[in-house]
Amino acid sequence: MTNGSTGYDTFHMGRSSIDLYSDDIGAPFVEITRFAAFVGGSPTNISVGARRLGLRSALLTAVGEDLVGDFILNFLKREGVETQFIPRKPGHRTSAVLLGIEPPDRFPLIYYRDNCADMELTIDDVLAAPIAAAKVFQFAGTNLYKDPCRSATLFAAELARRSGAQVVLDVDFRPDQWHDPRAFGVAIRSALRLVDIVIATDDELNAAILTDPAQMSLTYSQVSDARVQGDVESAIRAMMAMGVQAVVRKRGLQGSRVYLRDGSTIDAAAFPVEVVNILGAGDAFAAGFLYGHIHGWGWHKSARMANACGAILVTKHGCANFMPTLEEVMQFVERMGGL
Fold this sequence. Notes:
With 339 residues, this protein is α/β, with parallel strands linked by helices. It is 36% helix and 18% strand. The chain is built from eleven helices and twelve strands.
């Protein structure tokens, strides 16, 4: 990793929000009486996670000219994430998310993203940000669901590739943000030519590569249920054929597996913990992986670092506000047998 020695370790692009998480853990959503206010949005979470681990991280999102935007910017500045490239979008609102917490497996999530500011990012916003000065440019699949953010993201990935930065895609499939799961796959496949590393769950890999005509009529829930290993690995091979160098497959309790272009795979074991809230765990995972990758740790150790960060976060209440520091991660892995 040689690019960006005088710039940023990681540059993240995509959505941001105020996250209102139930304080009544275990209560059905209709019985919630209190919410706690945090900061969220996948690339935003990853930027905070990277910064807490010690990386120099910058974020390109957008917020409205509203108090919610002030809330997010204030938090990011306190965290030390570079915010000077985040524009305010008059006439558009900073987005919001509501979440119920019913562990271990029910986490109802409601997005309020109509007219949201972060989808108004433009090519001019990209040109105003020093993306070419970063070692890694990371974006989320949600960026691609509408213009102008879709074109701006692809343009940013082109700039990053030309500068020698590595481009990392966190697939981040949010089905209720898409009018059709097939459109999600089309959008992701259009970006893969620009991507070096993909980070995804099985569901996201299935949704990204719907190449079998028999699958074109499947609903999202049917796609998500198609967890046949052969299907996932076929999707990964298809990604490799489009130019991706590595796929980091998040497998929950089974840990993670890295797939490389030479056909080899590398397994990294999980860290067993008691789950409180799974939302944001994938973003902590990505931050941990990027930390190891930027420091040249190799695929296995980087994936173990990712697993550790994700495991810590599932024991917490929220996302960005609870990203672990490097000291916390190292203490955790020492107790759990090391990386």
